[in-house]
Write a structure and sequence with these properties.
The complex is a heterodimer. Chain A is an all-alpha fold. In chain A, about 75% of the residues lie in helices and about 0% in strands. In chain A, strands 1-2 form a two-stranded antiparallel sheet. In chain A, helix 12 runs antiparallel to helix 13. Chain B is α/β, with parallel strands linked by helices. In chain B, helix 11 packs antiparallel against helix 12. The N and C termini of chain B lie far apart (about 65 Å). Classes of the chains: A mainly alpha, B alpha/beta.
């Protein structure tokens, strides 16, 4: 093992090189195993991914072409599920709800996170680590618990928020039974859950900005706001795009909150499906109605949407790299 | 560069290290393979082939545990592996997955709403006639035993209990509103649903408070279960919900209640509903027999303030469950013995006296003990007679695979008028369109 401490440099003297040739040959023979070894190390993940990730994914594409009753017959119907899906107002309603909830949740979330990251990055902040860690608390809280608490706060008859509205002289507002209200309710939960995570991402890249850039700007008389606009935001651009893309993908998959807001035994999230998201619609079809084929078709379309968004991400991030 | 150096060094170390690496790689591969095969092994070992034991999937809150205990106490050589999977819907989900995957329990409890889907594919279950179910079929209410009977005559389930229908009301709130509080006088207030809604309007006019919890369950869902033909034609088994005047009538009653301004706009089993039970936000709620336990456990402080009146029109059923034996069961005989012993008229009577679960066997309905059963929480209402009477006039109607979806969409349309001030005039057409979308018509 002593040889590991100072590995021999490749000698420049051709005579010495010659003497080492046999060893090199040995190296090639064993090199095969060494090249295989990394694959062995990653094999467990890929074996599991194959069984629980890739196979179900591909199988979804197959099932989407069938009228698939898990306890009855399975009939091949080609693309009928997709033609039905694109004609189904419930699908477009769910897509619209998903988009709306995504907009109402992502935009405030990113602004709040940006602001908080800026504050947490302040050099004179005391107990910075305490504040930074506490940002993550909502993220590690169970979604079910968050949903129950927020649903109570926003409740029409007994909610804290409506109580405050009443104290202020305003009318009670039924969040869960109105379209916009239910979207705001879900978006609030999404923001609550994710703002800390996004803040920490921003904070990490903020800390990569050299302090002297700010100092130089300060010396030149730039105000805090100007520093924020001209230094902070441009340096954060890659991570901002990253968070927009991840929150979009996350937004397409919002499920637990609308599920828990649905009446017992239903997956509609309200009388007119006012807050049913795409994933909840998928679940309703697949595991409420047991229309596996139709549910899979929803899954395939959702998959397509996410691929498109990932592609946009890829194009944007290559452009940013190119610009730098 | 650093990495290359290290690799070069390892190469020089020769055989020993490489053998170790080979072992490591091999071990990891074997381990991952082991994990995978381990998974498949354990799923194969899920059911037991022992002739004296069987696996039983039930749902929570239905008290099957007590029955299993009582049965194994009497039959000490039998072992029952009872799993309370979750709510009834979750249990049906698990059963569906199990049937699709081929690893099934020996005995499963299926809730009435979930049953039609399984009856539509009877090949997944043992036809219980092979064990003699047709000999005991007459023990059960005709309209109940019809539900687990498939088109070809296969009987795939035995009914364990039914719901019956009634109205629970708050005597203190009725008294404050100047209404009668005696259960017979209250029942006399609403011989029809129109009378019920008129009573509601009178109550709200007198007190300014909501009368019932909501329109879709308390009025529509109960009224639509009093028909002689529901969403399907009884003979052809074709969908006819959109042309059946009985369904339309029940729907219109729901809309009338929703627009009467007398509902507290709270769906059952929500937090607002349990809060309303406690603080008197409404004076009346639907009360099929299994609901009594929910009212009692959610509002224990209101003991003695509730009473039970009959439902308008009189007869009707809401709920019930069935025991079935999947075709792939390892030990169907033991499961059948359990069904036969626990679902006989005497056993169902015993179960009612213990837990209030309503028997499906009419021959025990005039049992003096059953008729004498009262519930102290509900002002000593004679629940035995109230509920069994509501079961005797029920007309049998065919329940098809899409009945559940249709009911849910019709309820949602009424909810939209009740909770979100939707347009009552457009509700029926919207509901019919929504059903069309839902069942792919």
């Amino acid at each position: 093992m002593t040889t590991t401490v100072s590995p021999p440099r490749v000698p420049s003297d051709p005579a010495v090189r010659k003497t080492q040739r046999p060893k090199k040959a040995v190296g090639i023979r064993y090199g095969l195993m060494e090249r295989l070894a990394p694959y062995g190390y990653v094999a467990p993940f890929f074996a599991l991914f194959l069984v629980f990730g890739l196979f179900p994914l591909l199988f979804t594409f197959v099932v989407a072409l069938f009228d698939w009753n898990p306890v009855g017959s399975q009939t091949f119907i080609g693309l009928d599920n997709f033609t039905r899906l694109f004609d189904d107002p419930r699908f477009w309603n769910a897509a619209g709800n998903t988009l709306s909830i995504w907009l109402i949740s992502t935009i405030p979330q990113l602004f709040i996170a940006l602001l908080l990251a800026h504050l947490l990055n302040h050099a004179r902040l005391k107990w910075a680590n305490f504040f930074r860690m506490s940002m993550l608390l909502p993220y590690i809280t169970s979604v079910a618990a968050t949903t129950i608490v927020f649903a109570q706060i926003f409740d029409r008859d007994y909610g804290l928020l409506n109580h405050l509205l009443e104290l202020l002289g305003a009318d009670r507002f039924d969040f869960r039974n109105s379209v916009l209200g239910s979207h705001v309710l879900i978006a609030t939960m999404v923001v609550w859950r994710w703002f800390g995570y996004t803040t920490l991402l921003y904070l990490a890249s903020l800390q990569a900005i050299p302090r002297d850039v700010y100092e130089a700007a300060a010396v030149d008389g730039a105000s805090g706001w100007k520093q924020f606009v001209h230094i902070t935001i441009p340096s954060l651009r890659p991570v901002i795009i990253f968070t927009i893309v991840t929150s979009t993908i996350g937004g397409l998959q919002i499920f637990t909150e609308p599920l828990l807001l649905s009446p017992q035994g239903q997956f509609s999230c309200g009388a007119v499906r006012q807050c049913q998201t795409l994933t909840l619609f998928l679940y309703e079809q697949g595991f409420g109605q047991f229309a596996f084929g139709y549910g899979s078709a929803v899954g395939v379309v959702l998959f397509g949407m996410i691929v498109v968004i990932a592609l946009i991400n890829f194009l944007l991030s290559t452009r940013i790299k190119g610009a730098q | 560069m650093a990495q290359r150096r290290v690799i070069a060094t390892i190469r020089e170390e020769g055989d020993v290290v490489n053998v170790r690496r080979i072992i490591t790689v091999g071990a990891i591969t074997a381990l991952s393979a082991g994990i995978l095969t381990g998974c498949s092994n354990s799923s194969q070992g899920g059911s037991n082939a022992d002739a004296n034991s069987f696996e039983f999937w039930s749902f929570t809150g239905i008290g099957q545990g007590e029955q299993v205990e009582a049965y194994t106490a009497e039959n000490p050589d039998i072992t029952i592996d009872l799993t309370e999977v979750g709510q009834s819907g979750e249990t049906a989900q698990a059963l569906t997955t199990a049937l699709a995957g081929g690893q099934v329990p020996d005995l499963v409890l299926i809730q009435g709403d979930e049953l039609p889907r399984f009856v539509a594919n009877p090949g997944n279950f043992h036809d219980l006639r092979e064990f003699g179910a047709d000999e005991i079929a007459d023990d059960y209410l005709d309209w109940v035993i019809e539900q687990p009977t498939a088109e070809g005559g296969e009987i795939i389930g035995i009914p364990t209990d039914v719901g019956g229908m009634a109205m629970a009301y708050r005597t203190d709130l009725f008294e404050a509103a100047g209404f009668p509080t005696d259960r017979d006088e209250v029942s006399a207030l609403w011989p029809t649903w129109d009378d019920f809604i008129a009573t509601a309007e009178k109550y709200t006019a007198a007190t300014g408070e909501p009368f019932m919890d909501n329109a879709s369950t308390t009025v529509f869902y109960q009224a639509v279960n009093q028909v002689s033909e529901k969403y399907y034609d009884n003979d052809t088994r074709e969908l006819n919900f959109d042309t059946n005047p009985q369904v339309k009538e029940a729907f219109e009653l729901g809309i009338e209640a929703a627009t009467s301004g007398t509902t507290a706009r709270t769906p059952i089993f929500t937090e607002a509903w349990t809060a309303g039970l406690q603080n008197g936000a409404f004076a009346v709620t639907s009360a099929p027999s299994w609901m009594l336990g929910s009212i009692e456990s959610n509002a224990p402080d209101t003991a003695g303030l509730w009473d039970i009146a009959t439902v308008p029109v009189g007869a009707g059923n809401w709920g019930g469950s069935f025991l079935a034996i999947p075709a792939g069961a390892d030990n169907p005989e033991a499961a059948w013995e359990y069904i036969k012993a626990t679902q006989s008229p005497e056993s169902q009577l015993g179960h009612f006296l213990e837990s209030g679960s309503l028997p499906t066997t009419p021959e025990v309905y005039d049992d003096p003990e059953l008729l004498g059963t009262t519930d102290p929480f509900f002002s000593d209402a004679p629940i035995g007679s109230i509920y069994t009477e509501s079961l005797l006039g029920v007309d049998p109607f065919y329940i098809g695979p899409d009945s559940g979806v249709i009911g849910a969409e019709l309820q949602a349309a009424i909810d939209n008028v009740d909770y979100a001030d939707g347009d009552p005039a457009a509700a029926w057409d919207a509901a019919v369109t929504n059903v069309g979308n839902a069942i792919g018509g």
